[in-house]
Specification:
Blueprint lengths: L5 H4 L18 E5 L9 E5 L3 E2 L4 E9 L6 E8 L7 E4 L3 E2 L6 E9 L6 E8 L8 E6 L5 E6 L5 E2 L7 E9 L5 E8 L14 E5 L4 E6 L11 E8 L8 E9 L2 E11 L2 E7 L3 E2 L3 E2 L8 E3 L5 E6 L10 E6 L5 E5 L3 E2 L3 E2 L2 E2 L5 E2 L3 E7 L2 E8 L2 E7 L3 E2 L3 E2 L2 E7 L5 E6 L8 E6 L5 E2 L4 E4 L2 E5 L16 E7 L8 E5 L11
Parallel strand pairs: 12-16
Antiparallel strand pairs: 1-43, 2-4, 3-4, 4-5, 5-6, 7-8, 8-9, 9-10, 10-11, 13-14, 14-15, 15-16, 17-18, 18-19, 19-20, 21-22, 23-24, 24-25, 25-26, 27-28, 29-31, 30-31, 31-32, 32-33, 34-35, 36-37, 37-38, 38-39, 40-41, 41-42, 42-43
């Protein structure tokens, strides 16, 4: 069964009416190249900004202070207090223990507040210490080291092997980090590579770490089975923790599966080939993508049982035992949108809903899927009123509360204008026009290199990197639009 909102049923065209964007209000310019930068120097170049649900903006800039060569610094704007940037990471930021200088490569804002995690390279590090680490900058400006190669971790369960050789670190929830790698007693073995399979550890905000899961860990409710490698680890913050990985029976690969981890107890929820009431035989395969639902169960993308009419059948499913249901599938007709001919195995974005590029009779389109229904983004060959025809679909993002936004390019070249679009039940809404006059000069918004955290939040605040038409790509501005685009009374 497919849930279609009433607003969607009322559409009379492929994507329905799209409101014309009011471009009469000028944005607030937070930073512009050539202007003085807080902390000294001038902005020589600016990178695309990021934004969280509390209205905190962070951006990276190359700052020039002659006679020194340009250096990288990071700046923050608290839009509910001031529109003046504050330098939060200096070019020569010392490590917390003073044994080197931090060069932040990437910053990741938490959904709320001013705290953020950042990945950094350590310059001028003391001999024998690691050259890369993860850190937290707190609201008071202090910095805490979270994990660094060759430096021991404080393990909850103790153990002599506490020095991390890490492959990768991922954000979890509320400042927690997930570290994939192994712990060793001798830091000199790290450059030689891992001696065994990677293990997942949870790094708490208090500095402690504990093992979560490792290949070979037994499955409590399926004797003789174990978990193998995983690709989607611990998405979301619920307890027990959900994770997606390989299932092994008696040492042999048995397919993909969804597991739950409660402390050190690993249980199996769904596996490839399970017959799900209301769905049939379900397979994850290469189509794995999931999120755990607050009321229990999962929202999953996968492969459905074939029919005589649809031999290659894919879809989105709510897996919840006897209450499971198909939310969207290939061959389905969506009123006002068209028949879903294919669901791409790429381009999936997961949050409190899922966003996906699908194939319709008239070309690719963006769909957002949740247990509450569908929302529609732009499609190629569609003309957005007041904007123009869409030629290509860019990166997709799922915001903190589940809203879907994506980039749509207006002609077929990489240098052509692009817009930011919100997918809605009544059809796509362009959040900003393709070009806008700022400071008396026509600018376009560059969405070609969006950070992982999108520059828009559920309140309708947007920050953007704007460059003059015909500019050299270095000249530009960080501009802010406050709660005027699709703010709808969202409360924390």
């Amino acid at each position: 069964m497919i849930r279609i909102p009433a607003a969607l049923l009322a559409l009379s065209a492929i994507a329905g009416p799209v409101p014309t964007v009011d471009a009469t209000e000028s944005p607030i310019v937070l930073a512009r190249t050539g202007d003085p930068a807080p902390g000294g120097g001038i902005y020589r170049s600016l990178d695309p900004p990021i934004l969280n649900e509390a209205g905190i903006v962070v951006f990276r800039a190359q700052v020039e202070a002659p006679p020194d060569s340009p250096r990288i610094a990071w700046f923050m704007v608290d839009t509910y207090r001031s529109m003046t940037p504050e330098r939060v990471l200096a070019p020569d930021q010392p490590t917390p223990d003073g044994d080197g200088l931090l060069s932040a490569a990437a910053v990741f804002l938490r959904p709320m507040g001013q705290e953020f995690e950042f990945k950094a390279v350590i310059d001028q590090a003391s001999p024998g210490t690691g050259k890369e680490g993860w850190y937290t900058r707190h609201a008071d400006g202090s910095i805490t080291e979270r994990i660094r190669g060759r430096k021991p971790l404080d393990l909850v369960d103790g153990g002599a092997a506490t020095i991390p050789c890490f492959l990768d670190v991922r954000r979890h929830t509320e400042g927690r980090l997930i570290f994939h790698g192994e712990l060793v007693a001798d830091p000199d073995v790290c450059p030689q590579g891992l001696g065994g399979p990677a293990v997942a550890y949870l790094l708490e905000t208090d500095g402690t770490a504990r093992k979560l899961v490792a290949p070979g860990d037994p499955v409590l409710n399926r004797p003789g089975s174990s978990i193998g490698a995983w690709s989607h680890v611990l998405q979301g913050g619920s307890i027990p923790q959900p994770l997606f990985g390989d299932l092994y029976d008696g040492g042999a690969f048995a397919g993909n599966a969804l597991f739950r981890l409660d402390g050190d107890q690993l249980t199996l929820d769904f596996a490839d080939g399970d017959v799900v009431p209301g769905v049939g035989q379900f397979t994850f395969g290469a189509w794995a993508g999931f999120r755990d639902l607050p009321g229990g169960g999962y929202l999953v993308r996968g492969i459905l049982p074939p029919t005589a009419q649809v031999p290659q059948r894919h879809g989105f499913v709510r897996l919840a035992g006897d209450e499971s249901e198909v939310l969207l599938e290939t061959s389905q007709d969506i009123p006002g949108f068209g028949r879903v001919e294919a669901i791409s195995p790429t381009g999936l974005r997961v949050g409190r809903s899922m966003a996906q590029i699908v194939t319709l009779p008239e070309g690719p389109a963006v769909l957002g899927v949740s247990v509450d229904g569908l929302v529609l983004g732009a499609r190629t060959n569609q003309s957005l009123p007041g904007i123009g025809p869409v030629a290509a679909l860019g990166p997709l993002h799922v915001l903190h509360q589940g809203s879907v936004v994506h980039v749509a390019r207006l002609s077929g070249t990489s240098s052509s204008p692009a817009i930011l679009v919100r997918a809605e039940a009544g059809g796509p809404r362009a959040l900003l026009p393709a070009t806008m006059v700022i400071d008396g000069v026509s600018h376009r918004f560059d969405w070609s290199n969006l950070p992982i955290d999108p520059p828009v939040n559920e309140r309708g605040q947007i920050v953007a990197w704007a460059t003059p038409d015909g500019g050299n790509g270095l000249a530009g501005k960080i501009v802010y639009f406050g709660e005027r685009v699709f703010g709808d009374g969202f409360e924390f």
